[in-house]
Amino acid sequence: MVSPILTYDDLETLQEVIRAVRRAGARVDSSCGIHIHVDAARFDVGALRNLVKIVNKQEQLIEHALGITEARRSRWCRGIDQSFLAKIERQRPSDLEEMNRAWYGYHNRAPQHYDHTRYHGVNLHNVWFRGTVEYRWFEATLHAGKVKAYIQFALALSAKAINARASSSKRRDFNPATAKYDFRVFLLKLGLIGDEFKTARLHLMARLEGSAAWKGERRDTVAYRAAQA
Predict the structure, then answer these.
(1) At what angle do helices 179-189 and 144-163 cross, to 10 degrees?
(2) Total structural domains within the chain
(3) 222 assigned to some structural domain
């Protein structure tokens, strides 16, 4: 099922459609996924570089939070291509044509739909094929709240890349014990703050371990143990 082009104001309508499809008896299985396309019109070469770097830094955390299966991660939504990342950091493409060469390995003037480079969690192939940045991470669901959370996450990540002056690509190690806190901090830095995004934060952090409120042990637990010592 493919939606028409939507704006943020259409989220509630989309949720009602999802609920109607579920009531009609629709089901999803492991062969299904959700792909979110964001208009690439506001992505200049700097924004695309930022996006690749931000995702590379937080990729392990994102993959665990979204519960991406190993099968999908290895074939349909692979991680950031490290040779591509090294190339754009070394060459610093100055326009979309140079970014095109870095992505494909040559100047691809006529991208085809099923180009082999499309199978990444962040798919830049569609920038040149249909004018969108595609996020392929998301597992299939007919839970309207989760779909809304996925869209809000994709939009927030896009906005961060567009508005950031610079970004670091240094890969962050994944720590299961602090994952929920680490991802909450990341979501807040993306701007998913306040009551509007409360449900999004709930769904996006649900799979992660630890506490969303603190990193490591609680202070009162540490104090209690110190007192007992």
Answers:
(1) 60
(2) 1
(3) yes
Which residue range(s) make up the domain with 79?
33-228
Q: Give 134's strand partners.
A: 37, 123
> pLDDT-derived band of residue 227, with 50, 70 and 90 as boundaries?
low
C-beta atoms surrounding 32 within 10 Å: 12
- Tokens at residue 46, please? 């700097």
CA nearest to 112, candidates 129, 100, 99 = 129
pLDDT for 229: 46
> Exposed e or buried b for every residue in 113-150, given b needs 16+ CB within 10 A?
eebebbbbbbbbbbbbbeebbbbbbbbebeebebbbbb
Contact present, 208 and 65 (Cβ < 8 Å): yes
Domain contains 46:
yes
| CA angle (25, 30, 32) in 5-degree steps | 65
Distance, in Å, from the CA atom of 42 to the CA atom of 44, rounded to the nearest integer, reads 6
The model's pLDDT over 193-204, given as tens digits with 9 standing for 90+, comes to: 999 999 999 999
DSSP, collapsed to helix, strand or coil, labels residue 153 as: helix
- Indicate the helix (H) or strand (E) that contains 123: strand 122-123
Residue 4 placed within a domain: no
